[in-house]
Amino acid sequence: MRKTFTSTRSQPGPSGGLKFFGDVVVEGLAPDGGLYVPSKGFPKLEPSEWLRLAKMSYPERALVILEKCIHPMHISPLELRSMVNRAYGENFASESVAPVKQLTEEQYVLELFHGPTASFKDLALQLMPQIFAHCLPQMCRITWSWWPRLEIQAVLFSKLQMTAYKEGNVRSVSVLSDFDFCQRSIKRMFGHSSLTGHLAVEYATVLSTANSINWGRLLPQVVYHCSAYLDLLRRGAVTFGNPIDVCIPTGNFGNAMSAIYAKQMGIPIRNCVISDFISTGQDDLRGRKLVVSISPAIDILKSSNLERFMYHTSGGDIDLVRGLFMSLEKQQCFAVSEDLLQRIQQDIQAGWCSEEDCLTTIHKVYSETGYIMDTHTAVAKAVADRMHDRTCPLVLCSTAHYGKFAKAVLKALQCSTSYSVPSECLYVTLSVNQKKSIFFDDYFATMNKNVLGETFVRTIMTQCLGHQAVNS
Ligand SMILES: *Cc1c(COP(=O)(O)O)cnc(C)c1O
């Protein structure tokens, strides 16, 4: 089977309609506004295969898992191997790429912040552009021989720091709004056939999207959820087949969706996900305004990947999915049936916490264990403590390094800050309760491998020490 992908919003007809892997990576969003999903779900691995993977390194695990999900016709095993090695080699500050650390007796932290930007998105973004570039010429040869190459990369950002970025054929466009506005606008542009047609005819250009709407973003993320389980297996924290829970701070639901796909591959996962939709069966955005919090990466009202989840949970009911998400676009709300809600809750539990809970959690975890977590991981931790029944190990997904959100973390730790800047190395010494001090050493160790290192030094200095220190 070569064509295996379908849109969440329309039926593949008898004459086809199913898509190639390469198509879905290059297109990003389906023309009908839906998201691409594997029509037959994910391939399952045998227990013996998982046990063999448990002995392997992260890149080796990634290779085996991705080989199962990408037909060799689209990317040959040899090409995939070199992509994986490029993605997960030198670029990560931890040799294990996504290490699992034990936090308490039954809680573990999956650290996804050892890549170049110290956020979990690196796990996908070190690989996805390679896959994208690979799929592009292949499609050109087969279907669009007149189509020269990817021309324009316009990036819509709601973050100020990215607006200065201008290199080669990349332009960033800043908008005075939030993530939801950007995502909505992108979807609208994709759905405008006169715009896409004009771009294709006049400029021989197609639009694509690199956020977690894109299948190429989601797929590499499945690997680290599998890898976390394999690590627990290796250290004897679970025996194969015994379940684990994962707790994920959710924004666009991409990370959580990848965990659900890992489950389809045979990893025995139960989920807890942050979102009040899950607990009420209603997604009601009426009258809700996005409030920027200390955990900004999860400040999102409309989570795109919920659409993939609803598709799979409803057994591929495209009319239902189209109806729900059209209603969300037009009426700003939807509700699902009691029956479907029950099925959703078999996979997912949801919770939330206040900003105060988040800060308290950071402080508590540090005083009890010496571990510092960022403001997103702390949301997951607060919810996990409240909801976890402790009948199996729980993996907290740590999506960012605490140094990225230093200001809030310092506030949580109730630190008095002192600092010294010996030669090129910045030390921030914090005394907590006048007893302990923390060095940002490991953060800077991460940063040494960090292409954005310079930016981070500035960010952390600005956040800790104020503008004067940065400019002096
Ligand atoms: C992007 C991001 C998230 C949200 O991930 P989704 O896949 O959109 O749910 C959570 N935490 C951090 C630090 C992020 O950067």
- The rough form would be described as globular
Strand order of the largest sheet: 4-5-14-9-10-13
Q: List the domain count as a whole number.
A: 2
Structural class: alpha/beta
Report, as a whole number of angstroms, the end-to-end distance: 62 Å
Question: What's the total number of strands?
Answer: 17
Could you report the average pLDDT, rounded to the nearest whole number?
77
Pfam families: THR4_C (PF24857), Thr_synth_N (PF14821)
Keywords: Pyridoxal phosphate
GO molecular function, one term: pyridoxal phosphate binding
Domain Threonine synthase N-terminal: 5-88
Describe it for me?
This is Threonine synthase like 1. With 472 residues, this protein is an alpha/beta fold. The protein folds into 2 domains: 4-127 and 213-350, Rossmann fold; 138-207 and 428-471, no CATH class. It has 20 helices and 17 strands. The chain has helices spanning 21-27, 47-54, 58-69, 77-88, 121-125, 128-142, 179-191, 193-203, 215-234, 254-264, 276-280, 306-313, 318-331, 338-347, 355-369, 375-387, 406-412, 441-448, 453-465, 467-471, and strands at residues 3-7, 19-20, 36-38, 100-102, 107-111, 153-157, 166-167, 170-174, 244-248, 269-273, 282-284, 333-335, 348-350, 394-398, 416-420, 427-432, 436-438. A hairpin with a 3-residue loop joins strand 16 and strand 17. Helix 9 crosses helix 10 (254-264). The longest helix has 20 residues, at 215-234. It is globular. The N and C termini lie far apart (62 Å). Mean pLDDT is 77; it is low at 138-165, 274-283, 420-442, 447-455 and 465-472. Pyridoxal-5'-phosphate is lined by residues 119, 121, 212, 249-256, 297-298, 376, 399-400. The site of pyridoxal-5'-phosphate (PLP) has 16 residues, from helix 10.
